[in-house]
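Box 3.1 A note on notation
Throughout this textbook, protein chains are presented in two layers. The first layer is the amino acid sequence; the second is a token string describing backbone geometry. Keep the layers aligned when reading.
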Amino acid sequence: MSLLDGPLPIPAEVWASLHRGVVDARSPFHTPAIATVHQQGHPEVRTVVLRAVDEMQRQLVLYSDVRAAKVASLEQHPALAWFFWHPRHRLQLRASGQATVHRTGPQTEAAWARLSGHQKRTYAAEPAPGTPIPAAGDGLPPLDTAPTGRPHFCVVTSVIDTIDILQLRRSGHRRCVLHWNGRAWTATWVVP
């Protein structure tokens, strides 16, 4: 996964690396961190599961509970940044763009249909994520109540317009920025 060993990286190779994070749960890219702007203006970072990658649409996708703070933040400030780190390759990849929350529609219904009962049960939890509870616990209901989570489920897509890649190496770090110019990706070497 040395995207920066040779000449400027090919965008398709970068997107292929991201796609491996979707299909391989052991990939470090499977659980990136995302950064949002809280409704009160401060930054928030959290780990999510990368659910889909669409190179043609320049989209990265995650699922969320609509009651989660990140959804309210994204609906007010749709800027979304993704942070991927591959420790073995010492490769950092940051992607950013605008996010859209999809509560309904074909994409959301198809995503809900693909979830297992155990995954659906997450969205049926009461009370909402972030609500104080008297003791440690996950608040998950019995498995047979999983379908009741659908009203709380949403898909978040983010259209990526910048990808910043940093390779840490003893022989000298390398960094490249890919930027979408409206028609194609442009790549530029930058000082790490």
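The mean pLDDT is 94. DSSP finds four helices and nine strands in the chain.
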